[in-house]
Amino acid sequence: MSLSYAQQQLEGSYSLTATPFKWKVAEKVQPRSGRGFYDYVNPTSAKHILLLEDMQIGRIKREYGDFLCGKVQINRKLHDLMHLNDIAVTEREIEKSKQQRITCKKCLELVERFSI
User: Fold this and answer.
1) 3-state secondary structure 58-74
2) Which one, of 102, 89, 101, lies nearest residue 48 by Cα?
3) Which residues pair with 74 in a beta bridge?
4) What are the residue ranges in the chain where pLDDT is below 70?
5) Which of 103, 75, 104, 95 is nearest to 22 (CA)?
6) Measured in whole angstroms, how far is the alpha carbon of residue 102 from the centre of its chain?
7) How far apart are CA 28 and CA 26, in angstroms?
8) How many CB atoms sit inside 10 A of residue 73's CB?
9) What pLDDT score does 83 carry?
10) Cα–Cα distance, 89 to 83 (Å, whole number)
11) What Å distances lie between residue 86 and 7, 58, 67, CA to CA?
């Protein structure tokens, strides 16, 4: 019996190597309450799959820099600065990000549908 990605994710045994698109793990950039600047490392933020190339599979279409689940970024320029700069998209940083556990359920459900 095969476990779903969501079940494997909870057990820490999932592998997303067979996806038909290039990706990394990232969080949504969120404003800090009353401080006027953004919190990049928030332990309560969901970890999403961030696409590193344009993708269209069936009716689902996402562009470079979008989250797979379609979550909208509040500040797109800051999102791009934090996640899509020259340092953040090196192969080393991409592989390092994939060591984090993906916690967005919708991202996991979609990647399960699209995986080969």
Assistant:
1) CCEEECCCCECCCCCCC
2) 102
3) none
4) 1-18, 31-42, 116
5) 95
6) 7
7) 7
8) 17
9) 87
10) 8
11) 34, 30, 18
* Token code pair at residue 106: 């919708």
Residue found by looking up tokens 């699209």 in the block: 114
Place of tokens 């995986």: 115
Angle, alpha carbons 9-107-110 (nearest 5°): 100
pLDDT of residue 13: 44
Global pTM?
Answer: 0.77
CB 30 within 8 A of CB 45: yes
Helix (H, G, I), strand (E, B) or coil at 114: helix
């080969």: which residue's tokens?
116
Give the list of residues 6+ apart from residue 4 with CB closer than 8 angstroms, or none. 112
Using CA atoms, how far apart are residues 101 and 82, in angstroms rounded to an integer?
Answer: 19
As a dihedral over the C-alpha atoms of residue 59, residue 81, residue 21, residue 103, rounded to 10 degrees, the angle is -80
